[in-house]
Amino acid sequence: MRSWQRPGVPDLDRLGHGAGERPSVHDVRRDGRAVVPAGPVASMYTCGITPYDATHLGHAFTYLAFDTLTRVWLDAGLDVRTAMNSTDVDDPLLERAARDGVDWRELAERQQQLFRDDMEALRILPPDSWVAVTERIQPIADAVRRMLDTGDAYALPAVGEDGTPLGEDVLFDTTRQRQFPMGFGSRTGADEMLELTREFGGDPDRPGKRSPLDPLLWRAERPGEPAWDSVLGRGRPGWHVECTVIAMQELHTPFTVAAGGRDLRFPHQEMQGHHALALGARMFSEVRLNAGLVAYEGEKMSKSLGNLVLVSRLLQQGARPAAVRLALLAHHWREDWEWTDDQLEAAEQRLDRWLEWSTTPDDDPSLAESVVPWLRVTLHDDLSTPAALQAVDAFIQRAPADEGSLAAIDALLGIDLRSVARR
Ligand SMILES: [Zn+2]
Question: Candidates 3.30.460, 1.25.40, 1.20.120, 3.30.230; correct CATH number of 316-413?
Fold first, then answer.
């Protein structure tokens, strides 16, 4: 589907600063650092939104984290390829649409447009492919069919509330995977996995499951729910297999990074890895990255708790998009943190100081120092944007504005001081 407009990214190499290095990032699976990518191609699949509560600061923080990684990769002169989904048919979306008395497709389309507008305002680089799940129902059904054929999946009868037979659901057999769980799951206790399975709608108590953790791959049509004809009969796909198939179609496995918020590491990302193995991949991704979660008023920001701070609302209230960006970049991408309103004002003031500096004349460009190495050294170290912002703060105290520094702040931090409005 249509993505959003890509902001310009200055090429620091062409401006005479050489190329940056590959970053070292914290990989969830090995619980340690990895320099990525291993080869000349840098590819990333990012779990996208379920379009019913776009775009709160938790979303923005996640996508900004992976935007920073993309910018560091571009600066390293790598061939960068990115893909993301939109979970545009799923239980929470359908429940929201039913509650509000709107068509689920309209709700999804409206929220996706909001997301586009917010991402564009924040100058987040769009994925090369942004794929809606409803655009890939057939390949997903075909993949589930293959898993049934290989014995990686099994069918369970679906029955309505009144006992009416409704066809067959298909589940993934986690007991068949010799290395289950792998990655984060391998350091997670059985109780916690069960708890998370329940929290994410995994129905662990369903009779007939080979393991309580087995996730749904295909849901047979239920009355009043959207469904598509397929090799599996009428129904719709499960959540984890959607991302698996879209990622495998858009990027060669193993691609470099599977990315998402920390709340996705189990079961969602874990199951993706297993589904990919069942579908013949040697490995799903080289590393898994999890962005931290943003709280507000003491709780994780979520629609169900009603404590959302929406990007669009901050912008309507007059916040400059670059200031919202700076407020988010002031936190390390892996940190869990809490939004408070004073952080925006602090970011607005920082932006004013940077703007003031950006107009100071550089009398002798031949003597100019540049912030380029400062930004690179901080960002290569696990994308430390807080350190990068402090580096700029320190730099502007001692040197006039030069072309290279302005370009680097744009290329690596996504802030084009030449286009930011004054307050
Ligand atoms: Zn996903």
Answer: 1.20.120
